[in-house]
Design goal:
Elements lengths: L3 E8 L4 H14 L4 E6 L8 E8 L14 E4 L2 H6 L9 E5 L6 H4 L8 H11 L2 E5 L1 H7 L6 H11 L7 H11 L2 H21 L1
Parallel strand pairs: 1-4, 4-5, 5-6
Antiparallel strand pairs: 1-3, 2-3
Helix pairs in contact: 1-7, 5-6, 5-8, 6-8, 7-8
Length: 198
């Protein structure tokens, strides 16, 4: 089995770790070898959360610079920050709904221009799928489901060795029952958005 390397970056509270658990569960259901690792940073204070997921018979879950096959960013500036993990064959999926850091709110930082951000990512990678996942999460009746919207977009690319059905099954077992219906809808909306943009 070929090795596939996935990086997921987010701001604390956006559901990165839940997304990683759903992916891991789907891999187990599908009997696909998977290794995962996480960097939490200052997650509870709105800091960066990064997950690495490696499918196949790799010896480590560490993804070095230039090794990612796919990068998923729940926040645009975090996607840009992780671009060093990518190479010219990497596919990038990013949310375009911004959560500026407190330094921007204090006037001590400048948030990157979204058009320039996308241009830069496109210049360094194979393909970029960029859309406002927060809008789709609202359509799914759960603004907190941005992560699942982006998971739907990721699965649509068929880069990972996981089926939509295995992810849906994992969503039902790994998310709170009150959110299962909205999460399944969010997944479908993200899947459809990526298909339209592809």
């Amino acid at each position: 089995m070929n090795t596939t390397r996935l990086i997921i970056v987010a701001v604390g509270g956006q559901g990165n770790l839940l997304t990683t658990k759903v992916i891991g569960e789907a891999a187990l259901l599908s009997e696909i070898p998977v290794q995962m690792s996480e960097i939490h940073g200052m997650a509870q204070r709105g800091g960066v959360v990064e997950s690495a997921v490696v499918f196949g018979n790799a010896k480590s879950s560490i993804i070095s610079d230039g090794e990612a096959d796919v990068l998923v960013g729940f926040e645009p500036s975090e996607t840009l920050r992780a671009i060093n993990k990518c190479n010219s064959n990497t596919v990038v999926i990013t949310n375009l709904s911004c959560l500026p850091p407190f330094t921007v709110a204090l006037g001590k930082g400048v948030y990157p221009d979204l058009d320039k951000l996308q241009e830069l990512i496109r210049s360094k990678t194979k393909h970029l799928i960029a859309f406002n996942a927060a809008d789709l999460a609202k359509q799914a009746s759960n603004i907190l489901s941005v992560n699942i919207v982006l998971l739907g977009a990721l699965i649509q690319t068929k880069i990972l060795p996981l089926s939509a059905d295995s992810i849906k099954e994992a969503i039902q077992t790994k998310t709170k029952k009150t959110f299962v219906e909205s999460n399944l809808k969010a997944f479908e909306l993200g899947f459809a958005a990526a298909k339209e943009l592809d």
